[in-house]
Amino acid sequence: MLDIRLSRRRRFYTVVRPGSARNNTSMSKRTYGIDRRSFLHYMATVSAIPAIAQRVQGQVTTSPRFGDNPFTLGVASGDPEPDGVVIWTRLALKPVDGGGMANEPIAVQWEVATDEVFANVVQKGSALAMPQLGHSVHVEVDGLQPHRWYFYRFHAGDEVSSVGRTRTAPAFDAMPDRLKFAFTSCQHYETGYFNGYPHMQKDDLDLVVHLGDYIYEYKGIDNRSRKHLGNEIVSLENYRQRYAQYRLDPMLQEAHRLFPWLVTWDDHEFDNNCANLVSEEDGVSPEEFLARRMNAYQAYYEFMPLRRRSFPQGPNMTLYRDCRYGRLANFCVLDTRQYRTDQPNGDGQKPMNDKALNPQATMLGAKQEHWLMSNLVRSTATWNVLAQQVMMAPLNRGDGQDKRYSMDQWPGYEVSRRRLLKFFHERKIPNPVVLTGDIHVNWVNDLRLNFQDDKSPLVGTEFVGTAMTSGGNGGNVIAEYERAAQQNDFVKWYNSNRGYVACEVTPETWTSYFRCTPFVDKPNSPIETKGTFVVEAGRPGAHSA
User: Fold this and answer.
1) Which of 20, 35, 54 is a domain's end point?
2) Residue 145 domain-assigned (yes or no)
3) How far apart are CA 270 and CA 92, in angstroms?
4) What φ, ψ does residue 31 adopt, rounded to 5°?
5) Contact 435, 184 (CB under 8 A)
6) What residues make up the domain containing 47?
7) Residues 363 and 220 reside in one and the same domain
8) E strands of 174-270, at which residues?
9) What are phi and psi of 386, to 5 degrees?
10) Residue 442 in domain
11) Does a structural domain hold residue 421?
12) Cα first-last separation, the chain
């Protein structure tokens, strides 16, 4: 892991970093000539945007005139609480061509109603679409009733957005009869159409959870189902264009319109297989890495229905948080990228040797891990849900005695993994359920306290969702996964189709439906339920329904 120390007497950063970003055996000390004053000024400017938005000076366009409807990117909502929710939109006349908006603040009116025709408006107000934030709007609506559907829309000048639908969370002390939500991840635009979303829209959902890889950062490649605009994205404008290209997809945009979302990122929102301050590529200087991360984080915030608590501070952004669904479910949304130490032994499948067992290695970082444990101890929920990115179960993918594990996943940080499972067990955390993305394959895993002992107690259940599109059609039999499913007794099931997972949660049971689309290389796929698994409250471990 990089250790950046700002020298107050010398105007540069002293950087302690591995000799090579990925395959290193020693630590070396290097100094980069980034100008301290310039870098701090840039960070301070970006971090001050929320305050700037509160104290706008100069002209604000209160009655804008547009040649076309500026709500091309639709509407969205997220981070529901019992008394409110975030509602989002972004003004963009030319969404993939710089936005096409004047470089000035624009007044946007918003309203929330109990009915779709807005006969009963219960909250309304005005917000500023600031050019510093790409004319995005994040409104934290409060004063609403718990566990209720609402409708919302935005106005700018004579233009009106589409009507969004959202739902508040139940009261903290309420016990709902049911929660139904879906989770997904890994929606590579080029490798397929988002065919799962139209079927998700027909489900009776309260919430959508996205576990990362919302976009992919790679340059456009010919002869695929669709093509990214531009080269690999680095600048803020690059990231904005890529998000806009994804959000113009009508299937994705409609899913945002219909449901509140809980979102977190993985690596492709920024840089493949990044780890804290270490790039996948050798030779990337810290200033280049941090400048790119700053751009990626700002664009992510601009396009997601997130609260001000998640606003990026320069190249840092606090994304871990909780969402309490009454006393039924407590969602702990995690960030397994920003705070982790570098992957041991390089990326890929490696033996679990001393580096993977390094007690100083961390997946979450100390602050986030302590927050998580404190949250779980205080939780009054029946189900405690970790919404996170990479597989927690230690899946051996080797052959015979040649045991190999993914160093990018939790087994590459084995001491952190064991510490968390031991915490589940010793503190008797009620019904831990881990939701995972990243791997483009469905898995159902029992989480054992000691994975080397098949008689060790079960302490939780992991449901791994496949990709929405990444990897193409899928559905094929993969020898590595077949072998892994057979030689890891905690694996209950796996499947390599594309799609999403719908979960129905009651005080007694958790049921996960693995909903799969047979193809993504063209639109309009049907949907199939390939597997259904149930966890009973008080009895960790999943069984087929």
Assistant:
1) 54
2) no
3) 23
4) -115, 130
5) no
6) 3-54
7) yes
8) 179-184, 207-210, 260-263
9) -100, 110
10) yes
11) yes
12) 44
356 in a domain, yes or no?
yes
The C-alpha atoms of residue 448 and residue 458 are separated, in whole angstroms, by 4
Contact 456, 450 (CB under 8 A): yes
Q: Write the burial class of residue 300 (CB in 10 Å: 0-12 exposed, 13-18 middle, 19+ buried).
A: buried
For 443-498, write each residue's pLDDT tens digit: 999 999 999 898 999 999 999 999 999 999 999 888 888 999 999 999 999 999 99
Return the pLDDT at 342.
94
List the chain residues with pLDDT less than 70: 1-58
Residue 299 to residue 171: CA distance in whole angstroms: 32
Main-chain phi, psi angles of 147, to 5 degrees: 55, 50
The H or E element spanning position 350 is: strand 349-350
Kind and range of the H or E run holding 238: helix 236-247
Counting beta carbons within 10 angstroms of the beta carbon of residue 444, is it exposed (0 to 12), middle (13 to 18) or buried (19 or more)? buried
CA dist 136 and 114 (Å) reads 24
Task: Indicate whether 188 and 42 sit together in one domain.
Answer: no
| Secondary structure letter of residue 411 according to DSSP | G
State the total domains in the chain: 2
Where are the strands (E) in 56-211, listed by range?
75-81, 84-90, 106-113, 121-129, 136-141, 149-156, 159-160, 164-167, 179-184, 207-210
Q: In the listed set 54, 69, 84, which residue is the last one of a domain according to the structure? A: 54
